Amino acid sequence: MLKAQGHTAAELLTILSARQLCDGQVVFAGVGIPLLAATLAQRLRCPGLTILFEGGVIGAFIEPGKLPPSTNDQRCTIRANMVLGSAEVLLLLQRGYVDLGFMGGAQIDQYGNLNSSFIGDPRSPKTRLPGTGGGNDIASLANMIVAMKHEKRRFVEHVDFITSPGFLEGGHSRRASGLLAGGMFRVVTDLAVFGFDEAKGRMQVISLNPGVTREQLQDNTGFALEFATHPGVTEPPADHELKVLRELDPEQLYTA
Length: 256
What we know:
Layout: H1 9-18, E1 26-29, H2 33-44, E2 50-52, E3 57-58, E4 82-83, H3 86-94, E5 100-103, E6 107-109, E7 114-115, E8 118-119, E9 127-128, H4 135-141, E10 143-147, E11 155-156, H5 173-176, E12 183-188, E13 192-196, E14 203-208, H6 214-219, E15 227-233, H7 239-248
Parallel strand pairs: 1-2, 1-5, 5-10, 6-11, 10-12, 14-15
Antiparallel strand pairs: 3-4, 6-7, 8-9, 12-13, 13-14
Helix pairs in contact: 1-2, 2-7
């Protein structure tokens, strides 16, 4: 990842991701940067943010320096509102109680489809990845934020496999497939922040991170970029954001 002055690229990615969340939302967060970003938002300006885990925890409260390595870790349950089974917590998603899903992926394409299954030919893949878990359910039923490192091999024209659906082939193809709710909301990377064109269902740049040029961003992307009418420059991390983030992750498990 690129390093910006005074902070790592992973810290930048976490802080920019946290800024996408709003108080009062219910957020399905995966481990790593998604969980750290959701926890950071909760501490800074979203005290009413509710974090859900696929393992069944509702209202997780993460203690500083005790970030869980998985959503099934018992540290996830400290001060939680409730602990259910995986099926029950996914049913909350199906019933419309979840505002956002928050995850990463190995590949993403121009329509926000995520691949976390395999890279290469499905008959003989070059790399096998962890798979869907609850990712397909979450992406099919809620709005999505994706946080990931920005590399050409990750930002591809077409993913090798759609593990978690974005806007499929663009336009109204998601709705036509039977997915009536949700869709991609934001993609946050160490180079830029992306939204999605409402009519096309296609990724577009809404802000460039400090010091990043359009040419540099395009060179690191495997498809032709589209830009919002007036793309801005992302506000760099503030001192208080970095202070709280480093208190949450003092050993830099996710932000080195």
